[in-house]
Design a protein that fits this description.
Layout: H1 41-48, E1 66-78, E2 83-94, E3 98-104, E4 109-119, E5 122-127, E6 129-133, E7 138-147, E8 152-162, E9 169-176, E10 182-189, E11 210-217, E12 222-225, E13 229-236, E14 239-244, E15 257-260, E16 263-268, E17 274-279, H2 288-305, E18 313-319, E19 326-327, E20 332-336, H3 349-365, E21 372-374, H4 380-398, H5 408-419, H6 434-439, H7 443-460, H8 462-475, E22 479-481, H9 483-491, E23 503-504, E24 510-512, E25 526-527, H10 530-538, E26 544-551, E27 554-561, E28 578-584, E29 587-595, E30 599-603, E31 611-613, E32 622-625, H11 629-640, H12 646-661, H13 667-674, H14 683-701, H15 706-726, H16 735-750, H17 754-769, H18 781-788, H19 792-802, H20 811-818, H21 824-836, H22 845-854, H23 859-868, H24 870-877, H25 882-892, H26 898-909, H27 913-916, H28 919-949
Parallel strand pairs: 1-11, 17-18, 18-20, 21-22, 26-32
Antiparallel strand pairs: 1-2, 2-8, 3-7, 4-5, 4-8, 6-7, 9-10, 11-14, 12-15, 13-14, 16-17, 19-20, 23-24, 24-25, 26-27, 27-30, 28-29, 28-31
Helix pairs in contact: 2-3, 2-4, 3-4, 3-16, 4-7, 5-7, 7-8, 8-9, 12-13, 12-14, 14-15, 15-16, 16-17, 16-18, 17-18, 18-20, 19-20, 21-22, 22-23, 22-25, 23-25, 25-28, 26-28
Bound molecules: zinc ion.
Length: 950
């Protein structure tokens, strides 16, 4: 799955200028409570409620004594009554004698079930009793005869259900045609635990089986599934039955089907795979970019992994109602419309980047996740960390103009933000129930997973890393894996073409020699024990802070667990194997040093003026420079900032503010460093600067602190004034120049920087006079709309355009503008509308609420809205989902008073345990506590610093 809320390419805890890009926000996840299988037999007995028959299984995980081999599914959705009927015939193998078959089922009305035994040519079929245990979403088929080991049986189940009104299971989606007609379609979203809402199944990723799917539909519709159609049969005049080819062996969460009136465009890859993009008919002219990108990317992956894509086709479908960014169903990937459809005339530069990366993500999953799948959801990162990481590997080669590699470090900043809290969790974490599984879809699995893989690649070198991956994918094709399977594959691979310096030892470790001339090598003889090293990154939460003290030629190193929080007495027992890299004033060649102990010393060949660790931010750690280390770097930035790369500059900005949070540096030191930004023009350092500075005044906006708040706003505008003035109001330049322009102009206009406001007002007026027909440059639209929406009249005009189909590519930009209005009635109205889901799609509700929460006029309303509609929101978006986490954290993370903290705690404590114990709730509470502490320590200092520096 591709997350929606932690995306391109900037960390954002609050800066509203980047909201438009649905940027990284703290995602949620949960403290894991292993007690769920302690729900005992007594509970099961009582709840099954089927006379005297007890439910024969008492664990949330399915027993392993029955294994599915093949599913025959027949589904018949009725898009008028919004119901469906189903018939599932599942061939099973028995491993251990039993008289019951336990499998998953949720909200399905089962009308008949049988078990069939085959003996030679004859078979006996017996109807069986079905018990249901809803708390575990399980059913039990009770056989009248014992099921014997080694024998095959066929379980048949007839059932019916309603199409889901949420975004998971087999669910209803609607769209409006250009003529205003509302049309219905039905689509699926099964990951992680919703296949059981569409058909009874063994709904755990390790129960892989083959699927033969048949779908009945009206002749005016078409049906899609993982495999191509082999034949279509007319069952009646008004009913067609499509038979799809039998699938490869795969997990239930990857099954998919759609019944719709979509249109498509298609192309072939070099190896003859048919790629098609499906959309609602009116948007088919926005499908070409995705089609070309998918062809290029599938070709790339087949080549990179040296494993052919095993299906004959890959369909990419844009679904009008979609909760996350996209889903990797094998052969039928599904997307939110804004994650797939691109209009060359109207879409923004960031949309192009986002769409390319999402497609790259879902296609990477066809290997990582689909072909080789994690054994259980505790290792979700094996799917998601990889897919996230592969986005950068693939797109940097297939679409070099996008320069995606420049943005990678933003992922690590996002991950560190949540990973610095006590409520974080190790990458690999035990989970059991559906809400806990949902909570794994967070920044730790995705972003941290990707960052530690990138660090490992940098450590091993790209060729060794790739060779290990290919070995892993080959060895475990159509199977399931755990963490250690990956590390073993990587550890057993040696650098390609590097045989003199490295050799595979008997124990499977590669060694390298220190006498090599290549700078890519380590400074001392080391055994590359990948498993031991990577366990330090995946089995413990958080990340290290490395403190560097330079004494002459000696560099003293010290590592500790970086953790925010008032009671941050240094946590002991945490130790990482940190592959350090550094450059110095004397050498820009990257040097390396593996730190495996708490303290160590490295010796430089000569004394240096400055040293910069974590080159390019390829490592997942932050660095503190003791004594005058920071002063030397700050002078370097002020005098000659281009002496180090833009990513190194961005990482210094990030690290210096991180160190303020834990009291290692004073805020004035960090602000001193920020002064250099006056001369900065590259996207990542500019964004990182804004990401650090803007949240400070966002906290003040929610309190009565006008004087300092306004001074700080003035300081930031002044810092970027030259760069803002240089921006042209058109769409010229590279993608990164265009994204920079778009964000800077929105920031400037929102901060009421007059030259920007004047120009935006003029554009808005002309656009309004043309009744919305005038073509505005795409990169300035959000700024223009945002300024226009400040008057009631402008807001209403903008909303009247929002409703029209030909503004659909701009819907997100218009939503940003509508939700930064100062008019409280308008803000309330737009939130209410998004819950109704008629003119504003409910899929957009989470970010609309969060936009409103960032607005000084709206934060009270957003919090009230969240509280009052909690039950509805959970029903729609699912407990534990990234959408719920996005709202909980996004609405509360700019609170910094004790009253606000008490209010938030009180509300969540009043909810039932499953809600109050969500990890996102813990993160929200911890974040507010951190904000309170931060303001107590830093507010007066900021005030004084601003007085001295304005
Ligand atoms: Zn994914």
């Amino acid at each position: 799955m591709a997350a929606l809320f932690s995306t391109l390419p900037f960390a954002d805890k609050s800066s509203f200028m980047m909201m438009m890009m649905t940027i990284g926000v703290l995602n949620g996840a949960v403290s894991v409570n292993n007690d769920h299988n302690s729900k005992n037999r007594e509970t099961a007995d009582v709840v099954s409620g089927n006379g005297s028959k007890p439910f024969p299984w008492d664990k949330i995980r399915l027993p392993k004594h029955v294994i599915p081999v093949h599913y025959d599914l027949l589904l018949h959705p009725n898009l008028t009554t919004l119901t469906f009927t189903g018939f599932a015939r599942i061939e099973i193998t028995v491993n251990q004698q039993t008289s019951s078959v336990i499998l998953h089922s949720k909200h399905l009305q089962i009308t008949r079930a049988t078990i069939q035994r085959r003996m030679g040519n004859s078979h006996t079929e017996k109807e069986v009793m079905v018990l249901e245990y809803p708390p575990f979403e399980q059913i039990a088929l009770l056989a009248a005869f014992p099921l014997h080991v080694g024998q095959n049986y066929t379980v048949s189940i007839e059932y019916s259900a309603n199409l889901s009104e949420s975004f998971h299971g087999f669910y209803k989606s609607t769209y409006r045609t250009q003529e205003g007609e509302v049309r219905v379609l039905a689509s699926t979203q099964f990951e992680p635990t919703a296949a059981r809402m569409a058909f009874p199944c063994f709904d755990e990723p390790s129960f892989k089986a083959r699927f033969s799917i048949k779908i009945r539909r009206e002749p005016k519709h078409l049906a899609l599934s993982n495999m191509p159609i082999v034949k279509s049969v007319n069952v009646a005049n008004w009913l067609v039955e499509d038979h799809f080819d039998v699938s490869v062996k795969m997990s239930t969460y990857l099954v998919a089907f759609i019944v719709s009136d979509f249109k498509s465009v298609s192309k072939m890859t070099t190896s003859g795979i048919k790629i098609s993009v499906y959309t609602v008919p009116d948007k088919i002219n926005q499908a070409d970019y995705a089609l070309d990108a998918a062809v290029k990317l599938l070709d790339f992956y087949e080549n990179y992994f040296s494993i052919p894509y095993p299906l004959p086709k890959q369909d990419l479908a844009a679904i009008p109602d979609f909760q996350s960014g996209a889903m990797e169903n094998w052969g039928l990937t599904t997307y939110r419309e804004s994650s797939l459809l691109y209009d060359p005339e109207k879409s923004s530069a960031s949309a192009k980047l986002w769409i390319t990366m999402i497609i790259a993500h879902e296609l990477a999953h066809q290997w990582f996740g689909n072909l080789v799948t994690m054994e259980w959801w505790n290792d979700l990162w094996l799917n998601e960390g990889f897919a996230k990481f592969m986005e950068y590997v693939s797109v940097s080669i297939t679409h070099p103009d996008l320069k995606v590699e420049d943005y990678f470090l933003g992922k690590c900043f996002d991950a560190m933000e949540v990973d610095a809290l006590n409520s974080s969790h190790p990458v690999s974490t035990p989970v059991e129930d559906p809400a806990q599984i949902q909570e794994m879809f967070d920044d730790v699995s995705y972003e941290k997973g990707a960052c530690i893989l990138n660090m490992l690649r940098d450590y091993l070198n790209a060729d060794v890393f790739k060779a290990g991956l290919v070995q892993y994918l080959r060895k475990y094709s159509y199977q399931n894996t755990k963490n250690e399977d990956l590390w073993n594959s990587l550890a057993h691979t040696c650098p390609v073409g590097d045989t003199q310096e490295s050799q595979l030892q008997g124990d499977g470790f590669c060694t390298r020699n220190q006498q090599t001339s290549s700078s890519a090598h380590w400074t001392r003889r080391e055994i590359l024990d990948v498993t031991t090293m990577m366990n330090t990154w995946t089995l413990q939460k958080g990340f290290p802070l490395v403190t560097v003290t330079v004494k002459g030629k000696n560099v003293h190193l010290h590592q500790e667990h970086y953790m925010k929080g008032s009671d941050s007495s240094p946590s002991t027992g945490y130790l990482w194997h940190v592959p350090l890299t550094y450059i110095t004033s004397k050498s820009d060649t990257v040097q390396r040093f593996l730190l495996t102990t708490k303290t160590d010393v490295l010796i430089l060949p000569e004394e240096v003026e400055w040293i910069k660790f974590n080159v390019g931010m390829n490592g997942y750690y932050i660095v503190h420079y003791e004594d005058d280390g920071w002063d030397a770097l700050i002078s370097l930035l002020k005098e000659n900032h281009t002496a180090i790369s833009s990513n190194d500059r961005a990482s210094l900005i990030n690290n210096v503010f991180q160190l303020v949070s834990i009291g290692k540096l004073s805020i004035s030191k960090a602000l001193d460093l920020s002064l250099y930004l006056k001369h900065e023009s590259q996207i990542m350092p500019v964004f990182q600067g804004m990401n650090e500075l803007i949240p400070m005044y966002k906290l003040m906006e929610k309190r009565d602190m006008d004087d300092v708040e306004n001074q700080l706003k003035g300081y930031i505008v002044n810092l970027f004034k030259d760069l803002i003035d240089k921006q042209s109001w058109n769409d010229e330049g590279s993608v990164s120049e265009r994204m920079l322009r778009s964000s800077l102009l929105l920031f400037a206009c929102a901060r009421k920087y007059q030259p920007c406001v004047d120009k935006a007002e003029e554009y808005f007026m002309k656009w309004k006079e043309s009744n919305g027909t005038l073509r505005l440059p795409n990169d300035v639209k959000t700024a223009v709309y945002a300024v226009g929406a400040q008057t009631i009249e402008g807001w209403d005009f903008l909303f009247s355009k929002y409703r029209l189909p030909w503004f659909n590519t701009e819907r997100n930009q218009i939503e940003v503008a509508l939700s930064i209005s100062r008019n409280k009635d308008k803000l309330q109205w737009i939130m209410d509308q998004s819950l109704l889901g008629d003119v504003v799609k409910t899929q957009d509700l989470p970010h609309i609420i969060v936009f409103v929460a960032k607005n000084p006029s709206g934060y009270h309303l957003a919090w009230k809205f969240l509280k009052e509609n909690w039950n509805k929101l959970v029903q729609k978006f699912e407990l534990g989902s990234p959408s719920i986490a996005h709202m909980v954290i996004g609405v509360t993370n700019q609170y910094s008073t004790r009253e606000q903290l008490a209010e938030v705690k009180e509300f969540f404590n009043s909810l039932e345990e499953k809600s109050s114990q969500l990890r996102c709730v813990q993160q929200a509470v911890e974040t507010i506590e951190e904000n309170i502490r931060w303001m107590d320590i830093n507010f007066e200092k900021i005030k004084i610093w601003l007085q001295n520096n304005m």
